Amino acid sequence: MGNLLKVLTCTELDQGPNFFLDFENAQPTDCEREVWNQVNAVLQESESILSDLQAYKGAGQEIRDAIQNPNDIHLQEKAWNSVCPLVVRLKRFYEFSLRLEKALQSLLESLTAPHIENEVNNEMANRMSLFYAEATPMLKTLSNATTSFVSDNKTLPIENTTDCLSTMASVCKVMLETPEYRSRFTSEDTLMFCMRVMVGVIILYDHVHPVGAFCKTSKMDMKGCIKVLKEQPPDSVEGLLNALRYSKANV
């Protein structure tokens, strides 16, 4: 990991690092398969979660009508019937975040220290209220999972985790900024995948590293990563750029 990071961040190479990672056709090895299955199951479920989130409309009007008319049984029942299915959906979103948290911790363990075991505390009622109090609950779950992984494993050098994250960001940046590599991908979805991973690991790095991802001494090439994003169609990267702007842990 360290040697790969040195290659990715080296500025003395005439043509930059020369390598290609075939994200579209990569397959897990036997020793990776258990973690791969866990992460893949979460990623597969994420498609329906995202669709459900995009279709979520809430029941604000029904709730307001019921509050303003406490003696109107019809409005009380209407609000109740509107809210109950939404609570079920919110519970599903929260339970997905727990699976996402576990998957990330398993992935970090396999990348930085395969023999470490962690426990995750699931107190449903209290954690749901805290979960939805956050502006970006899913992102907060991931950053908390990464931070907890580091704090719970004090014998593991923090550089093992931060170098892993910065390497992943550098890999994605190189793939995106090199026309030869971009042309090998058969789907635009793969390019979006690279951009999302790059932004995601930058944010996680910023939450874990003592001085963050945006300082001059950071191993993250922030100028290069932002340049790559700004070279893409604005509609496709606006949300990613906003995530970088508003999810900083170190300001």
From TrEMBL:
<dbReference type="InterPro" id="IPR039789">
    <property type="entry name" value="CYRI"/>
</dbReference>
<dbReference type="InterPro" id="IPR009828">
    <property type="entry name" value="CYRIA/CYRIB_Rac1-bd"/>
</dbReference>
<dbReference type="GO" id="GO:0031267">
    <property type="term" value="F:small GTPase binding"/>
</dbReference>
<comment type="similarity">
    <text>Belongs to the CYRI family.</text>
</comment>
<dbReference type="Pfam" id="PF07159">
    <property type="entry name" value="CYRIA-B_Rac1-bd"/>
</dbReference>
<dbReference type="GO" id="GO:0016020">
    <property type="term" value="C:membrane"/>
</dbReference>
<keyword id="KW-0472">Membrane</keyword>
<feature type="domain" description="CYRIA/CYRIB Rac1 binding">
    <location>
        <begin position="117"/>
        <end position="248"/>
    </location>
</feature>
<feature type="domain" description="CYRIA/CYRIB Rac1 binding">
    <location>
        <begin position="18"/>
        <end position="114"/>
    </location>
</feature>
<protein>
    <recommendedName>
        <fullName>CYRIA/CYRIB Rac1 binding domain-containing protein</fullName>
    </recommendedName>
</protein>
<dbReference type="GO" id="GO:0030833">
    <property type="term" value="P:regulation of actin filament polymerization"/>
</dbReference>
<keyword id="KW-0449">Lipoprotein</keyword>
